[in-house]
Amino acid sequence: MGTGELDREAHVAAGTEVNGGTAAPRTLAEALRARGDEGLAALLRARPDLLVPVPGDLTQLATRAGTRASVVRALERLDRFALQTAEALAVAPDPAPYPVLLGLMAGDEGDADIEAALPRAVGILREQALVWGDDDRLRLVRTARELLAPSPQHPSPTGLGPTVAEATAGMSPTRLQEIIATAGLPTTHDPVSAVAALTDLFTDRERMGGLLDTAPMEALGILDRLVWGPPYGEVTPDPAPPVRWLRDRGLLLPATARTVVLPREAALHLRAGRAHRVPEPVAPAVMPAREYRPQVVDSTAAGQAYTALAAVEELGKEWNEGGPAVLRAGGMSVRDLKRTAVALDVTEQVAAFWLEVAYGAGLIAPDGEADERFAPTPAFDEWLGLPAAERWALLAGTWLAATRTPGLVGTQDTKGRTLAVLGPDLDRGVAPEVRRRVLTLLAGLPAGASPDPETLLARLRWERPLRGAARETGTDLRARLASWTLTEAELLGVTGRGALAAHGRALLPGAPAPGTDHPVDGHAPQHPHRAAVPAPAAAGPEAVGGRRPAHAAVADHAGAAALLAPLLPEPVDHVLLQADLTAVAPGPLQRPLADTLAVLADVESKGGATVYRFTPGSVRRALDSGQAAADLHAFLAAHSRTPVPQPLAYLIDDVARRHGHLRVGAASAYVRCDDDAVLGEILADKRSAGLRLRRLAPTVLAAQTDPATLLEGLRSMGFAPAAESAEGDVLITRADAYRTPARTAPAPVPEGPPEPDATLLGAAVRAIRAGDRAATVVRRDDSAAPDTAGDGAPPRTSAAETLATVQAAAMTGSAVWIGYVNADGAASQRVIAPVRVEGGFVTAYDHTADEVRTYPLHRITGVAELADDAG
């Protein structure tokens, strides 16, 4: 198969017939009208902003596709070579034949890689309606040409300047004649022919080469400095001889009073025909930095996944009784972030990451009270009840789709304000796309290989060269997001030692097989995977309080959870008690055991084995939660593989004997005790001065402070008081006492409309086709109906004629064209197929809206039958 046949196949696949028998399209709308439904669906899939709202017909679609905002968005999604192709078309003649475009991209000497990649690039531009027309008349849409064409205010990325015709506009005819005469050309009778003669000279390789052979060496040096851009240079009123030589022959043309410009045709000759200095037809490969055995990667990632679960669980427990206050502007203060980092034993940046993941998963949220603060949600308790692998799947899936960007915490926005963790300004719509793309590129490496970060960033820059400094001026946001993705994926256990784990690969449906960096013919795919941000699930029978249950969200990544589950350590049901008042957990504990032990003891160290320490405070905490000393002895005996040490038994009995001897209640607050000597001891202690106690009775003290402060003050003095209710009963406090109301997890904030699914695309294409049919319909010529408007205007008929026509159409099953005015007075044209006419209403299938509707007959302004060959 020859190169021409390959080019033809590529263009036919893009949706445009090469050298077909039909007439060439004159407008973009005509080009779109010639496409099949698959071609229109491909356009709407690649540019989903064109669907909001659904265009009424193909003319509206073409108009919207040419608006500046939509074209800018489409250009930002092009890879580097497709963008270079569009830039070359912007400096080519309009329209440009395909061979001319190939010459601008490959140069006079040609390039096999460019010749192979150019049909794909043209196909992308054509599919996205940035280019239209057959190969002999390729046209870049006007808005894209305005954005990419060279101008003094917006230099072209090609480094080319204006054409000879553009640069000489406004030049005096006498000066033009002087230039062509000095260049060795015969004089002409008008400026137009003079410009054409100079242009022909600069585009003739042989004559242009002969002219440059006579140039001074200094003049050639000046051209070398201008040839790749910028093409402008400053001159003095009395320029040097080399500059004068170039200016006299039109190789430098005046741009302003003090600047000259190298015309485009001359620059292209000096560049050997290339529009770009370094064309990049092939995507740079992501190179592996190191390779490990896949089993090592999976086990390392699983260990980190378990650490991630422990960190989020510890965060929830740390805030069980209420977390830090919410700032007035939203988010958490720097001081509270530092405290959380200390509690989790991580850096502040890592703590911010765990906070954002938990917040995105709906596990923590503001409580909505007057003095608002953060706290775990009911979903946190639901999450704790899931198997470990499913808990991880929820966190990883949330992170992958979230637009919130923890890496921005601590930086400043464009107004100089510091961005706070859990604050309102951390959403970046491009984040899910970058995360998913980074993981997809990792999936294309050999199994167990970690990437070279520089080659990974180079690949991302090639795929989206225009999308970097979207909000962060002067910085490449996509590069920063990619670096954060590598770090965050390692923290979550999606990767191990930098390489994608098997359960991480399962998060990416359709990910390439290991070792296939470029899945299509050695080139990057036409559309690198774009993550469509999932819309919040509609509340159904499984919804609770407007949120999606954790088990429903986990089902989205059940495959990843299934692969991770065998790699996680099995929970154990025992601990090892030691004589130094510590207990060693040889692995992750089963949930009931872990919850009870977390109340009875404090965590002293973490790692492969967790060490718990028993203290008077921790034992008192267990007694406060409703446990009795006998319950604690029985619990330890049942779950310890070693005998209960005597010091631990004494500690429990001693704290239990003193626990509740004092009772604190609300008067403002009071203390009562059957032993008045104890109350006397408290009054005599100088540390009680701040509590402002006074004796009301031999066994009762009153305090001018609240019960909680009184409890803490007495405990700091070494006593073990118990709180009591208004009825005199001991109040039992539990670790999970405080929860926010049911909250909906924050929905991602996409940068633009999400990629439409097949159902929406099909409905949109049918609606656009129907609307286009209504706008371009051919009506049957009926000279007996003088009130029927012509020239495509809505039909006008009497009420009797309207009723008769729609009744006849209902009996024959044919479609008719109607004019209709809705209740708001808006007029429209529709193509309908009447089904039933009764009671002053017509029920019909509306081809324009692609649904069955009912229309009042009195609102139909007129009706016309369609020609037999219409549509």
TrEMBL record:
Residues 785-798 have a biased composition (Low complexity). The keyword Cell membrane does not apply. Residues 1-11 have a biased composition (Basic and acidic residues). GO terms for molecular function: helicase activity. It holds the Pfam family WYL. Coiled coil: none annotated. This is Helicase C-terminal domain-containing protein. It comes from Streptomyces lavendulocolor.
